[in-house]
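Hi R.,

As promised, here are both runs. First protein below:
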Amino acid sequence: MAAARSGLADLVARLRLDPTYLENMKANADSAGSYCENPAAGGLAAEGDIFVEDCGWTATEARWAPIEAGGAKEFYHYAVTGYSAVTRNADVLVSGKSQNVIRSLKASIAPETTPMWLYFSDYELADPTDPTTYPPTPSGQGYYGGTQLTSGACGGSGAGGEAAKEDLAYSWELRQPGNTKPKRVYATLTAAGIPCKEPTFERWDALVGGPVHSNDTIRASGTQFGAEFTTSDLDCKKASLAEPDSWQNCVTGQSRPVSFTEMPKHRAALALPSVESAAAESAKGTGCAYQGPTRIVFAADGKMRVWSKQSDPALVRSGCGSIDDLTSDEGALVVLPEHELVFVGEAPWAGDHQIAAGGIGGPDGQRLPLGSYDPSLAPNASTKYTAERAMMRPEQYSGKANLYVEGRALGQLTL
């Protein structure tokens, strides 16, 4: 069994060095270093390997790779029984041999990508430069004023923007050993009437279906975590199985008891994978991918109504709505792509301007954006209209990747 595990480690190492190792097998069949030339693949034990024909293996070849450290008395072999070039997930059967005794194991291996995580974020309080959440006062002064925004309100120097992030030790990547800056303290500020807003897991949240990781401190109160729980908060290094209460170093804001199935632990900060490569490709393969402002209204029958007027028809797969339906007043009725990913990317061809009233779409009488804004009207002293304040921000303009979600979903998916 140790030899089999060595074989699994060998294949994983190859895939880490080259994520495309198992792709384009016919093109790579004769190249040195390809899977077809791998001494641990093919032969008698290759029954079920999906690349047998691509590599031209015959049933008379027995191929075992020796473990040199064991004096070539132990060997391993593996067969790839399933592979997706979209998600790069692979199913493998690995066998180990020692003194003519063979043991085998089955494994599923995959790269670490966004869809693997139930909750995956840089996890921080509201953006210090967000004028909608923290609007400036008319005078441009005070806790809501000018360049202060979140930084001044939440204990920073008042410099605003990126400078505020560094001043507040915004990310745990900045809290290296020797960093003496204190953690942010919100309770006293909130009590003083200064609204420091940050995401919080509450008592009705039960995250039991997958691992949870945050690059920052997780704030939770009364929450149930039912799987692996990791954080890059350096204080979480103090958590120890020998001290059951030491998990409190990994989470903050627990006015109600928080429950864990597994002991929380520290983990180095994760780099967010490229959404254009991992998430978008996964959505196009098995989930749903849309472009530009997209609205989804969930229904209790396991379906969703989708409006996405700027989506590229070539990128919307069958089952995610036709372009005619996605751009109609009624929207496209789509069966929930359960356990899959819905991804919204930018539509750069759609321009860069404030969206007209109703331009995103929705049910009759409830179309977004609200108001009466019409970009075709020449702005002058007599032009009057109403518009949603948030839609005046460049981040909400036409062509941007914004997803508007409402309703109750029956099922599980990642957005």
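And here is the second one, sequence first, then its structure tokens:
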Amino acid sequence: MNQLYLSYFLIFVGLLSIGIFFYFKYFINNIISTLAEIISLNKDLNYDVEKFLTTLEPLLLKAGIVDYGFVIKYQDQLLDFRVEKIGKNSISEIVELSDYTIKIKLYPKKYVGENVEKYKIILKTIVLIIQEDLHLKIESTNKSFLNVAKFHTFILHDTKNISQFFQTLNYNIEQCKTIEDKERLFEYLKQSTTTLNDKSTNILKLLELNSTDELIYDKEKINLKEFIENIASIYKLDIDIKENITIQQNKTALYLVVENLIKNIADKKKQEPNIKVDICITKDTKIDTDKENISIHFKDTGTHIENIQKIFEPFYTTKQSGLGIGLYKVKTLLSKIGGDIKVSNSTDGVVFEITLKV
């Protein structure tokens, strides 16, 4: 008899265990399904936190949450809100990130037993989604501001170069005392206005370029010796390039690259008048492809560059009045026209090497 009761008891326990197993399986599947729908909704709304919070109601009702409310503030200014019922059994959390503050409150239908953990999981998931959406929103905003700042700094950098030319011109005018001085100034203006006009035109062209394709395909024949020597003459650098090589390249981009490097050398020479400058051009033919690369070496015997690994980073500068944009722009332009630039401290100075694919 006792064995019979024991058999019935074991059967009862087995059936109960199976029932509990299937119940929790259903319970867990229900939570996973709800969370998947909530995550999918956020993705469909392109991670817009305001749209996400305003369209949650159907999914929350399906999960057994009869009502919910939220408040979104930015710098203590109210952006959006949803008024919830005033009742019992509410659970809430506050998200504070950067200048945003978001409070979310849920009102579960049955806040007892295992449902307590279910609703806590749902609330925590919503909070994590809000945090992720805010991170993306802040990152996107910061990136937009950074792009505006870069564009502004690019214009400021190039305008500053032109301004420096006119400051020098004004100084030379003030120094004119004799007829010979005036004749030399006039001759200087005849030589400089053409190159200055070219510089201004190239800056305006660069601002008008809409895509990388224009830089890649808008090419013309350039005699590098003549091209570089003309730019160097603007900055009174006396150089003699022996190699006479012609390439097809985007003239606007190449002008701004070479002009930036030569201007840096000229600025350095003002501080170190005795440094020597050498610019040479070489061809490198790849045996496996029969394609040529052109390398242009800008060498000076001046002091080494400190923190050389950071020299191409935007807004990094070693000059007191520098903006830290020139070399960053050089590297950016070269990458767009299929080139590259390297810098090294040599035993007797500094070498910038430009590589251009032909």
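A quick note on the second one: DSSP finds nine helices and ten strands in the chain. Let me know what you think.

Best,
J.
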